[in-house]
Write a structure and sequence with these properties.
The chain is an alpha+beta fold. Helix content is about 30%, strand content about 30%. It contains 5 helices and 8 strands. Strands 1, 2, 3, 4, 5, 6, 7 and 8 form an 8-stranded antiparallel beta sheet that branches. Strand 1 and strand 2 form a beta hairpin. Helix 4 packs across helix 5. The N and C termini lie far apart (about 45 Å).
Length: about 180
């Protein structure tokens, strides 16, 4: 597709600009008391400890954006977060190169809440049956976890655990709106 074709195909996204005279915004509550803002430390750590499917994001190769994909993770408040990933996978190579990653977990009900945590890799370890079982049972009912673990052992590539120390947190609960 050449530039002319691209311009024509994107023309429906064109926005006509107009001057804005003045914009005035007022909050209905005093600053600092807005409902639905950042979570307290215990709230954000507790939320991250719940079994949400995370999005992991890792700096990409030159000329590419970050790799962002869904992933199972484990976290205990005050400790390290960890994930399992395939040996030799793109994810593993990027984590090794960057030395850090981000996890984002969210929910939509009963209110929109999210926690994003980023930090350095602290260690890696080979996947063990105990680690695999802990992760599978975190996300699956017991009968499904057993079947998944049997399937994974026979059909999936070798995995290893990557541990991250949470260093930077961003969180909010927008339920107060």
């Amino acid at each position: 597709m050449d530039d002319t074709q691209l311009t024509k195909s994107l023309s429906h996204f064109a926005v006509k600009s107009r001057p804005v005279k003045s914009v005035r915004t007022e909050l209905s509550v005093p600053v600092g008391t807005v409902p639905g803002m950042p979570l307290r430390n215990d709230e954000r750590e507790g939320f991250l400890a719940e079994p949400h499917v995370a999005a992991i994001s890792i700096a990409g190769e030159p000329g590419r954006g970050p790799l962002t994909v869904p992933i199972w993770y484990q976290y205990t408040p005050g400790g390290e977060a960890w994930v399992l990933t395939g040996v030799g996978s793109r994810k593993a190579r990027l984590i090794e190169a960057a030395g850090r990653f981000t996890l984002l977990v969210q929910r939509l009900e009963p209110s929109v809440r999210y926690v994003s945590v980023e930090g350095p890799v602290t260690r890696t370890a080979p996947e063990t049956e105990e680690l695999a079982s802990e992760m599978a049972h975190r996300y699956l009912p017991p009968d499904k976890a057993v079947g998944y673990l049997e399937f994974a052992k026979k059909n999936l590539v070798e995995h290893f655990a990557v541990y991250m120390r949470p260093e930077h947190w961003v969180s909010a609960d927008l339920g107060g709106w």
